[in-house]
Design a protein that fits this description.
With 488 residues, the protein is an alpha+beta fold. It folds into 3 domains: 4-86, Phosphorylase Kinase, domain 1 (2-Layer Sandwich), CATH 3.30.200; 94-274, Orthogonal Bundle (Transferase(Phosphotransferase), domain 1); 325-485, Protein Transport Mog1p, Chain A (3-Layer(aba) Sandwich). The protein is 22% helix and 26% strand. It has 11 helices and 24 strands. α8 packs antiparallel against α9 (259-270). The chain is globular.
């Protein structure tokens, strides 16, 4: 952890991805926490990526809106890496909130209003966001009329483009489950692309699930019709569904004229009963989310603060689907040796010494260290399975465990194993971890908690498949961090 970035005293890392790392720091001159975004070292010499990083700062500086993350400063480190100093979101992201509790219709409408206001401010300044999704909606505590409340802000314009450039050349990029069809097809864009993404965000906040679970931009190019917005647990008037579906219209000509018109129509359809109580924060302050902590002293802290799991940013090309892996997992788990252990963490390796993982002690109730037959591979490959019981891989099981398996492959798969027993499939995220390309999908509201599927490109012709089932995200993250391969 660097002690300083420019004149800013570093407190801890907020997160990192393929292109940049974001640090929580203090502006000692103004006595205020800030977020410092630094370009990743491996992209310093790539002029296209460097230019895109700097353009994000320029786009954000064009807009003076309380609902768009503010850039206060920019600079360059001694090693040549540029950095941006931005407002610090002390209440986490919309993705955090959706995973913990979800939102009421009133809270969802307030997020749509504030995010919509931020997007409208970008559009007025001639800037498209192009990547509106839960992870790019940040929450920040502000003081209004002597009391604290939470404000939603649009962040991360890494894919942002000036409208005049979008009319001539459009890079195909974005998050498949939230990207507009015309963007996925590489067509010239206008503000209605951001409106589509906002409508997809609305659908998620109201229903608790995304309108689509696209695994690729190719699928997003022809989205089809989403499931009904209403569920038995949450029933909405037909007018609400009509407003959202018009925002999600595949043909942009069928959408609302602009974001403001969409937001107004949604507020009218939801009615006055969805209004939030203005006498208190519309979104309760969550002390468990990221907080700045005490002002740093000249001496380093005696115990460094723990780092959260880095949020992915880098998109990679996906080809070829994995088929039948869940069924094969059940076969690989045969021949368990049941052995109960204590509560301390234990590290387990496969028979070949190729794979290892550290898990909570109570997970080590059943092991399989045998090789497995990967799909269409014509041979056996190293595998490892550790779980609280022999049936942890069963569909509908509430047990916990992790499976690791090597399999042939020269490209990351377009689709990972599906889990219909889980209520929510988050959008796939692509990243580079330890110089290896990865694709990860998190399924929530599963019978036992969450399920995580990850595929890693270990070598030119080898993949690693990881499945984790856990009662909570924190434990799953810890297990994922402790997966290791040897000999690659």
């Amino acid at each position: 952890m660097p002690s300083r970035l420019g004149r800013y005293a570093v407190r801890r890392r907020i997160g990192s991805g393929g292109f940049a790392t974001v640090w929580l720091a203090y502006d000692e001159q103004l006595d205020s926490p800030v977020a410092v975004k630094v370009l990743a070292e491996n992209w310093t010499e790539d002029q296209a990526v460097r230019q895109r990083f700097l353009e994000e700062g320029r786009f954000l500086r064009k807009v003076e809106s309380p609902y768009v993350v503010t850039v206060y400063d920019a600079g360059e480190l001694e090693d040549g890496r540029p950095y941006l100093v931005m407002s610090y979101a002390d209440q986490g992201t919309l993705a955090d909130r959706m995973e913990i509790l979800g939102l009421t219709p009133g809270q969802a409408l307030e997020v749509v209003r504030q995010v919509g206001t931020g997007l409208q401010a970008l559009h007025v300044r001639g800037v498209l966001h192009r990547d509106v999704k839960p992870a790019n909606v940040l929450f920040r505590t502000v003081e209004v009329a002597g009391r604290h409340e939470v404000r939603a802000m649009v962040a991360d314009l890494g894919l942002g483009k000036a409208l005049d450039m979008s009319s001539r050349l459009t890079m195909i990029a974005g998050t498949p489950s939230f990207v507009a069809p015309e963007q996925a097809q590489g067509e010239p864009l206008d503000p209605r692309a951001d409106q589509y993404s906002l409508a997809a965000l609305t659908y998620l906040m109201l229903s608790g699930r995304s309108p689509y679970a696209h695994a690729s931009l190719a699928a997003a190019a022809a989205p089809g019709t989403p499931p009904p917005l209403s569920t038995p647990e949450r029933v909405f008037p037909k007018a609400v569904e009509s407003v959202v579906l018009r925002g999600l219209a595949p043909d942009r000509e069928d959408r609302w004229p602009d974001v403001a018109a969409y937001v107004d129509a949604l507020a009218t359809a939801l009615g006055p009963e969805s209004e939030v109580d203005r006498s208190e924060p519309w979104l309760p302050l969550d002390p468990d989310l990221t907080q700045p902590g005490a002002r740093p002293s000249p001496l380093p802290p005696s115990r460094p603060l723990s780092d959260p799991v880095p949020p992915p940013r880098l998109r990679r090309r996906m080809l070829a689907a994995i088929a039948g892996l869940v069924a094969l997992l059940l076969g690989a788990a045969a021949g368990y040796a049941v052995e109960k252990r204590g509560d301390a963490d234990v590290t387990v390796s496969d028979r070949t010494g190729t794979l290892s993982v550290t898990v909570p002690g109570d997970w080590d109730g059943a092991r399989s260290t045998r090789t497995w037959k990967a799909p269409d591979a014509g041979g056996e490959f190293p595998a490892l399975s550790v779980g609280t019981s022999e049936d942890w891989t069963d569909v509908g099981s509430t047990e916990q465990g992790v499976f690791l398996g090597i399999l042939p492959g020269d490209e990351l798969p377009e689709q990972v194993p599906q889990h219909p027993e889980c209520h929510i499939a988050q959008e796939p995220v692509d990243d580079v971890i330890d110089e290896n390309a990865t694709r990860t999908v998190v399924y929530t509201r599963c019978p036992g908690g969450i399920t995580v599927e990850r595929v890693v490109q270990l070598a030119a012709n080898r993949l690693l498949w990881v499945q984790v089932r856990s009662a909570d995200r924190a434990t799953a993250n810890a297990v994922l961090d402790d997966v290791a391969t040897h000999g690659f």
